[in-house]
Write a structure and sequence with these properties.
By secondary structure, this protein is an alpha+beta fold. Helices cover about 30% and strands about 25% of the residues. It has three domains: about 90 residues, Uridine Diphospho-n-acetylenolpyruvylglucosamine Reductase, domain 2 (2-Layer Sandwich), CATH 3.30.43; about 120 residues, Uridine Diphospho-n-acetylenolpyruvylglucosamine Reductase, domain 3; about 60 residues, UDP-N-acetylenolpyruvoylglucosamine reductase, C-terminal domain (Uridine Diphospho-n-acetylenolpyruvylglucosamine Reductase, domain 1, Alpha-Beta Complex), CATH 3.90.78.10.
Length: about 325
């Protein structure tokens, strides 16, 4: 597989010149907010203006060679198995930056951190992303999952996305307007297409910087007070379904599951819908604890909880 990976990377550079860094056997635990997971067969980071052409070729050539590719943004909602990932983990951290497009639009490269995007918009006097202040992760990941908090979601401001659509036999690169009808609660059309997002553009509204920064500071304090940063975690583990009659955290609390442990993974003592790495957790611990919580909720209420965390398989995920 290593020779195949090297061949795919070398050939992809012929389509789009980039500065590339390929690390074989690179641990993934430090790349994800849970702090768990084994090594990537190849962790690949590419930077430079040729990245879109390089990435398009990479997905196509990797598919032809049978090499799985998993895109990784900020690692805020991803758990890799303890055995690691067999294939290429494409780290988007080298593809960052923002571009003003007209008076009220900003386009962000997908590897840009969410918190940095919030700061860029606020500095430009443009409002619409403040609700994401303090959220870990990347712009591409937030668009892919239609990140939501404080009653707002990314789809509410998203107006255009450049993506590599992986749903067909041949990956297709396209720039498409964002249709609100295609989005739902933490759902997006990119999930259905298995897309890799290259950039996301947001339509924003003028607002005073003082007002925006006051709101951003308030929301960051709220996240901190709720314990999002106390121990390694990925925030909410399960999606909140209105049909369940209340937030998952409240349901889990009602069953007395706060503090439940499997190995080093623990349901946060302060929040029922957060699993934390309480020390020495493995990916298997996190997966087993999430499954145990879901099973107990199912037995007690009949509700099927849907994970918000992406549990990456050992050789693919959103593969190429």
């Amino acid at each position: 597989m290593k020779d195949k990976i090297k061949r795919v990377i070398d050939r992809s550079l012929g389509a789009g010149r980039c500065d590339v860094e390929a690390r074989f056997g690179e641990p993934l635990a430090g790349r994800c907010t849970f702090g768990v997971g084994g090594p990537a067969e190849c962790l690949l980071r590419a930077s430079g203006d040729g990245f879109p052409d390089f990435a398009s070729a990479l997905f196509a050539l990797a598919r032809a060679e049978g090499v799985p590719v998993f895109p990784l943004g900020g690692g805020a909602n991803t758990v890799f198995p303890d055995s690691g990932f067999r294939g290429i983990v494409l780290d988007t951290g080298g593809w960052v930056g923002a571009e003003r497009v007209g008076e009220r639009r900003i386009r962000f490269r997908s590897g840009t951190s969410v918190d940095e995007a919030v700061e860029v918009a606020a500095s430009a006097g443009l409002s619409g992303l403040e609700f994401l202040a303090g959220m870990p992760g990347s712009v591409g990941g937030a668009a892919w999952m239609n990140a939501r908090c404080y009653g707002r979601d990314v789809a509410g401001a998203l107006c255009e996305v450049e993506e590599i659509d992986l749903s067909g036999r041949v990956p297709e690169r396209a720039r498409r307007p964002a249709d609100p009808a295609e989005f739902g609660y933490k759902r997006s059309p990119f999930q259905r297409r298995g897309s890799f997002i290259l950039s996301a553009s947001f339509r924003l509204e003028p607002r005073s910087q003082a007002e925006m920064r006051a709101e951003m500071d308030r929301l960051r304090r709220d996240r901190e007070e709720k314990g999002h940063y106390r121990l390694p975690c990925a925030g909410s583990v399960f999606k909140n379904d209105p049909a369940h009659g209340g937030p998952v955290g409240r349901i889990v609390d009602g069953l007395g599951l706060r503090g439940l442990r499997v190995g080093g993974a623990q349901v946060a003592p302060w929040h029922g819908n957060i699993i934390v790495n309480a020390g020495g957790a493995t990916a298997a611990d996190v997966l087993a604890l999430a499954a145990e919580v879901a099973a107990r909720v199912k037995a007690a209420t009949g509700f099927d909880l849907e994970p918000e965390i992406v549990f990456a398989p050992g050789g693919g995920g959103r593969d190429a």
